[in-house]
Design goal:
The complex is a heterodimer of chains A (264) and B (163). With 264 residues, chain A is of the alpha+beta class. Chain A contains 8 helices and 7 strands. In chain A, strands 1-2-3-4-7-6-5 form a 7-stranded antiparallel beta sheet, with helices on both faces. In chain A, strand 5 (209-216) and strand 6 form a beta hairpin. The radius of gyration of chain B is 17 Å and the shape is globular. Classes of the chains: A alpha+beta (264), B mainly alpha (163). Chains A and B meet through helix 1, helix 3 and helix 4 of A and helix 1, helix 2, helix 3, helix 4 and helix 5 of B.
């Protein structure tokens, strides 16, 4: 049996309309359409749809580009933002004395206090991961300051894990509250296509745990506790990918006593 | 070979077209494009030297998905721009029918169909943009077409008469 004798599939009909059909099936598909009016009708309808879509939006690409989309304007626009980030770092140091008070812990975490902590981390992910212009308080360009500042505020030595091997680049970080009013550190990462992962670190009375998975509202979290610190890695990506990222973060964070390597 | 910035510049008209078709709102569309450009310029060092256009479509697609997710927490979503006058016959009616038909699609199907049909991306490129296998792209396109056709031919008999 030759290729041209094979029955034509729906996939092939779509591929034919979209110019994706291998050349050696073209004649067979055209012959098929000649003898199958229903399929010919569908193909014609799909083409009509495609033409209508193109006709509807064609003029948008012909219009002059508005000034807010001029690239040279954008690079200027980003400068004040960098200054603001630097100012935020300075301000953070001025208020550093406040950290000891903030980091003080109240009563031990009841079981559901720990759950609330994980929920808080997931909520922080949901709120900040979609933020385009101000996803972080301190950008990765100031990674050194960021880590010193957050370490000071949370009351233990922290560094942002290096997740470049997972295709993730550090965006920066911010300070966040925990449900019990203590300070938590929050790092944000993103990959080349803009998908974001966050790491939330907070003190907890809960004893060490293995990695656990929790999901709510399309965002998933993997969390564990090591030496009274809870780590929560969140993302909207697939669980497998989240797992790999959490694993990589875990491996870098685990040896907490020998953290001399730099995170960026 | 053209540079990164120049490549981004050249893609702007097509990005605006794609964003408009995704949002049906000119201001929202340009905001999305602006956010895409800001992010692309900021993440230039992350660009792995592949197909720049696909990368930009990927960023815009992800931003739009994020936008829809945050909208989903509000009580109502108006898929079609407020500026849209009530339906009328005449030359505009066909275009408006297409907008409405697109608005009935689930996000992944709308994205796949628009990238293939409007932006001329190959199935393989769309698979990269959406982060799914090619077979998934093909079934999204197929389901989108089925849904569009059902909408246009059953609920909107108007369009069939437009040449």
């Amino acid at each position: 049996m030759k290729d041209s004798d094979l029955p034509v599939t729906d996939d092939e009909l779509h591929a034919y309309v979209d110019g994706e059909l291998p050349a050696d099936r073209r004649a067979a598909v055209e012959a098929w359409l000649g003898t199958h009016p229903d399929d010919a009708g569908r193909v014609a309808a799909w083409r009509l749809q495609a033409d209508a879509i193109r006709a509807r939006y064609a003029d948008v690409a012909q219009q002059p580009i508005p000034s807010k989309l001029q690239l040279d304007r954008m690079s200027y626009a980003s400068r004040p933002w960098k200054l603001a980030a630097a100012a935020a770092v300075v301000a953070a140091f001025l208020f550093g004395g406040f950290a000891g008070w903030m980091a003080r812990d109240t009563a031990g975490d009841a079981p559901n206090a720990f759950e609330r902590l994980i929920a808080q981390a997931l909520n922080a992910h949901k709120v900040y991961a979609v933020e385009v212009r101000h996803p972080v308080e301190v950008a990765a360009a100031d990674a050194e300051h960021l880590q010193q500042w957050l370490s000071k505020r949370v009351g233990y030595q922290l560094r942002a894990p290096n997740l470049e091997a997972q295709g993730l680049h550090l965006v920066g970080g911010r300070l966040l509250p925990t449900p019990t009013g203590a300070a938590a550190a929050f790092f944000m990462y993103e990959n080349a296509s803009g998908e974001r992962f966050t790491l939330y670190c907070a003190h907890t009375k809960t004893p060490n745990t293995a990695m656990h998975y929790n999901a709510a509202d399309k965002a998933g979290a993997i969390y564990w506790v090591d030496s009274n610190i809870a780590y929560v890695v969140s993302s909207a990506s697939e669980r497998k990918q989240l797992w790999q990222v959490a694993r990589a973060a875990y491996e870098q964070i685990e040896p907490r006593t020998s953290q001399h390597e730099r995170g960026s | 070979m053209i540079g990164f910035q120049e490549g981004v510049q050249l893609a702007i008209p097509a990005l605006r077209r794609y964003a408009r078709a995704l949002t049906h709102d000119a201001d929202l569309a340009d905001d999305l494009v602006q956010d895409t450009l800001v992010r692309a310029l900021r993440s230039q060092h992350l660009f792995n030297g592949g197909e720049l256009r696909s990368w930009l479509y990927t960023i815009l697609t992800n931003l739009n998905r994020n936008r829809l997710r945050s909208l989903a927490r509000r009580p109502t979503i108006t898929a079609i721009g407020d500026n849209d006058a009530p339906d009328a016959s005449g030359p505009e009616a066909g275009g408006r029918d297409i907008e409405r038909a697109l608005a009935t699609l689930v996000e992944d199907q709308r994205t796949a169909l628009l990238l293939v049909v409007l932006e001329g991306l190959s199935y393989r490129e769309v698979a990269e943009v959406q982060g799914v296998p090619i077979g998934t792209v093909m079934s999204r396109v197929a389901r989108a077409r089925l849904q569009m056709r059902a909408y246009l031919e059953n609920d909107r008999p108007m369009l069939r008469r437009v040449k």
